[in-house]
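worker-3 :: picked CPBP family intramembrane metalloprotease
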Amino acid sequence: MDDLQTARPGLVRRIVAFPLTLLIIEFFGVAIAASAASFGLLKIVTQGTPGYFLGGLAVAVFAILIYLAARRWIEWRGNDELPLEAFGREVPLGLLIGAALFTLMTGIVALLGGFSVERVNGLGALWAMLAMAVTSGTIEELLFRGILLRHIEAMLGTWAALAITSALFGLAHLSNPGASLFAAFAIAMEAGILLGAAYLWKRRLWIPIGIHAAWNFTQGWVFSVPVSGGKAPEGLLVTTREGPDWLTGGAFGLEASVIAMLVATAAGLFLLVRVVRQGGIRPPMWVKR
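worker-3 :: tokens ->
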């Protein structure tokens, strides 16, 4: 009996190990560390250069290391979400899925008369777009899938976690230039469900990181479309968008198109079916597993 009492974690340890506590500590820890690293990058590296992309890659790696350190030293868990042995097969798969989905969606919009390619522009803002894709894809997936979805799932179950994180992901884009309520709803549906399902599929982060990075890079550099609002970047192709906002996405970009929402959400639901069939849906913490 004495040995069992000695082995039982203390009150402080049990409080820290509770999913809500872990969520708060890890979310703000990774967010603050990544923001500080990104701020430092802007101070020491010239934007639009190969060094800027390498700096962005370093920021992404730094965020991953902070995340893994939190899992190791706060959660006492091993690295089962970002194993190096899975990197070579899962990141390319994610990149392929993200690029293919955005290209498919853009092609449908073009067939409906809302998008056209004028000419090839050249390299354009290649290095800046690569840096943006790597940092946004990595950091946002660590925060929203690795931390928020995982810990909310531990408390409320898979379905509630997917719904809450999808809504939060959409709301997080409301402050972007050109955002609207429909744009936030579209992001919640297409990205929240797709990326959440991609994480639940393998219970690892490499595939959603790849999807997220390729989606942003394809729209920003390949098709020169605004990435979640703002000014259209100078990409590989000179393109134009014409037509109603439901088709073109308006000022927010093609992400806010109904076509994008349907294509990406359908892909997310396809992955969710796989998750259900492989028994990947978990109940709330008050239900015995």
